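Problem: given the chain below (686 residues), write out its structure.
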Amino acid sequence: MSLALVALAALALVAVLLLARAPQWLLLTLMLLSVTMAGGSLYLGGLERAIGPLIAYALALGLLVPAGAVSYRSSRVAPAKRHPVRAQAIGKRRRTLTKGGDPVVLPGGSEALAIPGYEILEKVGSGGMASVFRAKRVQDGQLVALKVPMEQYVADAKFIRRFHREAEVAQRLDHVNIVRTFEHGSLGPQHYMAMEYVDGRSLEGYIEGGDLTIELSVAVMQRVAIALQHIHAAGIIHRDIKPANIMILKGGVTSSPDGSKSLQDEAVKLMDFGIAGGKVLSRLTMTGARVGTPVYMSPEQARGLKIDHRSDIYSLGLVFYEMLTGQTAFKGGYEAIVHQQIFQTPAPPRQLNLRVPKVLDTLVMSMIAKDPDARPPLAEVAETLEQVDLAEGSADDIGDRIVLTVNARQGVVRILDLEGNLHVSLGDLGVGDPAFSTAPVAVAASPDGHLYMASFEYRVGQERHHMIARRDKDGNVVQTFGAYGMQPGELLYPASLAVARDGSVYVLDSETHTLTRYDEEGQVLSRFGGRGHGQGSFSDPRIVVVGPEGHVFVLDYGNRQVQRLSAEGVYETRWAFRLGGGQTGMRLLDGFTVDREGALYISDATSGKIRRVTPSGKLGAVYVFEKLQGEASDQLLDMGVDSTGVLYVSRRGGHLIRKFDPGGDLIESVETYAPVVHMLLDARSS
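Solution.
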């Protein structure tokens, strides 16, 4: 065979090896063979016969040099942008771990990095965009955490450049509550970051295990807020604040004999800051897949808008919310949570956990404000956490109060201040005292602060089960009366009740259309009313109220009027409104109340207005009560007036309490965060 044919064969071999990405030793052998062949051709046959071997030599050399350069390249900055097809091919290659630079494979065939100088021990975690391995640095034996981008993101040049650029910034951060970054680099298609290894437990684990007290939550959050403040000062936005990225060192939390827990200053470590942010995370999609969880995502991030440090404050507030309540602020599928993040405000933490101090409740709700400008700066957050008084609140010192019974499994009876802040929750649905087997349909307050509650419940085999209970300030049942039945003192359906200044209790039975008056011990004093067309008889009575002078007022719903009777049940007078426009009949009334001066506030359901009637019978202020979208118009209104003359109105089954000033103008609406069964305004201030 001539040298020319050998040269052609060598050229074909080069092409095959080029496509197969041959190892360096084979390419080197081919190069030496080509040199020998080229020299022989020149000696025996001249330049024409040496062309083939020379071409093979040039191709082998061209293939060898870049392969060698890639092998020894370990850049400290991001690589240049690659051709997409080339990048995808690299991303699909199988990668192995190293042990002091020699390739090894972890149990289970884990694929990760090829970084000389590190001994890989185990894979410790995998997030949405990167995997983390525990490794030992060969030169000094120090344990480190090696973070490696997930395979599907290696082909994204923007992501890789951001990975390295922000890692460089993170290396300059030096704070006791921030995980340190030692170095970063790349080896061919493999990129890595070596960080401080944290031996501990994530905040997520503490929350799931129910191991957080309010005191410990405050201590952890204070250190995270200070660490995040340090990060923001360096111009970095974390973008991924969540419990899984907050670590607590092993042994960092100590327990005292009294059950309290203390936290060492250096025990909290904030991780994963600024690694994959910017517009990549601002969009909800990346390389065809959802990025991260929206549970802690700010509204502006969910909308795909530009974000700044205030987005981190929002996410931190949601983490604090979960620490205090044991549950996330938003729940559901991905799209549902994104919608809630943008449009809905969750129930304040104190609505879910009464032990949360009001100052923390206010702080959390301000941190998760939808408007970024309304969120407090981190310096203010840290200062509030440092100065917070963790003493539990009480309803004894709030003066006028709102008492709600709600359709919820937790906090069935709630006592709020006039701003809607929860102070006391008197029980959950359940069995046994102080739980409620069903939500009370009505509630009334006695002069000594005790609450009378009416709960309709007939139990087969327990005919003497009482439906009226008096509970003390702690929610404990003090007394019961009102068994199911038709005998004196018995009831069929206790729809409403009221307490007079002398302590006597009036219970309205909507089935028998009667009122039964009991003394403080639950003994029957009198019974009056009955079915009829008015003047002491009723048609479908719904609400009873006792005025300041001891008069008894009844919403006679079926007869479209409010009747006033004496304490003994003698008819005195009535109020009703005629239909206008030439129509005959009376307007429908769906709620009323009486203030301290004896003035009536009567809701005219036909016109959607509440009319104030003075004790002398003159019409006063008119309050426009507009029906809200989705609000049931066939439900009664509960009303009450506080010591300053402000009117409070709530639609049963709704979620709002609307407040009107004495002139009739709407002041604000207070969210109840649960469907209202009954509202009472207990004006206790002198």
